[in-house]
């Protein structure tokens, strides 16, 4: 379908490594300069997250096709799809863009949880991934990020140092249990000891566990993936991000960039008021997206595609 200006047309597609994922390819009506595949946050695996729809709204005007799709179902309730599977699906989606649009450069965009999967995909893909855009991407492991996030939640709820210490002790036990280092009865005993605390519901630990609880990517080290990425990368962090340790993450990416032999990174710190989402208000809508995010995103992508076109012509 065409929008009112005729900037893009959108078609339903099937994608993923097995062709079983429902997707939408939004492509420019005119010349296609490149493509981008969005990777999902942990809590929304649909193609209709407002940040993903924003890409399909603004990028076709730059000649960029956007392929957004439903993430495959999680293997267990409450757990995201393992990162390697998400990475494989993203590369399959990138290939589908090239099949529909020709041999154009294709990059990956990842928000939050997708900020782990996108570098993992790019790490082993060589020139298949031409660039990365990562929004609120944690530079630490999922386990460490969740310790940071839940501690912030407990403090924001008005609880003090003692409560935070108990929370972090519980989450340490939880990680040991999921690694197989602590048996279920011992883990349940640790939960029972603090289940009546007023902060317990913020700990993201189930009141009663089962023997098949798992978290495959708990100890995923993003540095290991990112240090082998060779494409240019743009990172965004909200000034008041409550979900990821932004300062530690930015330091990690800068350190990796110095050690790696890639094409470098660009980091944009969005203004005060932006949090984990690059928005300037409480509403999760396209209209609330920070204008600086849109400006920096479109300008950077425009420059990258110009550079890639120049290289290709040369």
Question: How do the strands and helices of this protein lay out in sequence?
Answer:
Blueprint: E1 8-15, E2 21-28, E3 34-39, H1 50-58, E4 64-69, H2 83-101, E5 106-111, H3 114-123, E6 132-135, H4 142-156, H5 161-179, H6 184-194, H7 222-226, E7 233-237, H8 246-259, E8 265-269, H9 291-313
Parallel strand pairs: 3-4, 3-5, 5-6, 6-7, 7-8
Antiparallel strand pairs: 1-2, 2-4
Helix pairs in contact: 2-3, 4-5, 5-6
> What gyration radius follows from the Cα positions, in whole Å?
20 Å
Number of helices: 9
Low-confidence stretches: 1-6
Query: What is the residue-mean pLDDT, rounded to a whole number?
Result: 91
Number of strands: 8
How would you write the strand order of the largest sheet?
1-2-4-3-5-6-7-8
Structural class: alpha/beta
Shape, principal axes of CA atoms:
globular
The largest sheet is: 8 strands, mixed
Helix-strand topology string? EEEHEHEHEHHHHEHEH
Helical content (DSSP H or I, runs of 4+):
25-40%
Distance between the termini: 36 Å
What this model shows, in words?
This protein is of the alpha/beta class and 314 residues long. The protein is built from 9 helices and 8 strands. It has helices spanning 50-58, 83-101, 114-123, 142-156, 161-179, 184-194, 222-226, 246-259, 291-313; strands at residues 8-15, 21-28, 34-39, 64-69, 106-111, 132-135, 233-237, 265-269. It has an 8-stranded mixed β-sheet, sandwiched between helices.
């Amino acid at each position: 379908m065409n929008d009112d200006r005729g900037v893009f047309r959108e078609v339903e597609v099937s994608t993923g490594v097995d062709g079983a994922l429902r997707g939408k390819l939004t492509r420019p009506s005119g010349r296609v300069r490149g493509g981008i595949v969005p990777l999902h946050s942990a809590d929304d695996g649909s193609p209709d997250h407002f940040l993903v729809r924003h890409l399909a709204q603004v990028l076709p005007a730059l000649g960029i096709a956007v392929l957004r799709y439903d993430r495959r179902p999680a293997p267990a309730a409450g757990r995201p799809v393992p990162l390697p599977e998400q990475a494989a699906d993203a590369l399959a989606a990138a290939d589908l863009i090239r099949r529909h649009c020709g041999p154009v450069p294709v990059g990956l965009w990842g928000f939050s949880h997708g900020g782990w999967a996108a570098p993992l995909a790019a790490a082993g893909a060589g020139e298949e991934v031409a660039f990365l855009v990562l929004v609120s991407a944690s530079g630490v492991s999922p386990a460490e990020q969740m310790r940071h996030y839940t501690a912030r939640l407990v403090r924001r709820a008005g609880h003090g140092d003692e409560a935070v210490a108990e929370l972090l002790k519980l989450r340490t036990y939880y990680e040991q249990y999921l690694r197989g280092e602590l048996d279920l009865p011992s883990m349940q005993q640790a939960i029972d000891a603090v289940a009546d605390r007023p902060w317990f519901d913020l700990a993201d630990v189930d009141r009663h566990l089962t023997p098949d609880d798992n978290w495959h990517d708990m100890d995923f080290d993003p540095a290991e993936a990112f240090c082998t990425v060779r494409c240019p990368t743009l990172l965004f962090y909200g000034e008041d991000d409550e979900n990821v340790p932004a300062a530690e993450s930015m330091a990690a990416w800068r350190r990796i960039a110095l050690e790696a032999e890639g094409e470098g990174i660009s980091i944009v710190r969005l203004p005060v008021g932006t949090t984990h989402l690059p928005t300037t208000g409480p509403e999760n809508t396209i209209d609330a997206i920070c204008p600086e995010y849109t400006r920096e995103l479109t300008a950077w992508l425009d420059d990258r595609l110009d550079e890639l076109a120049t290289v290709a012509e040369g």
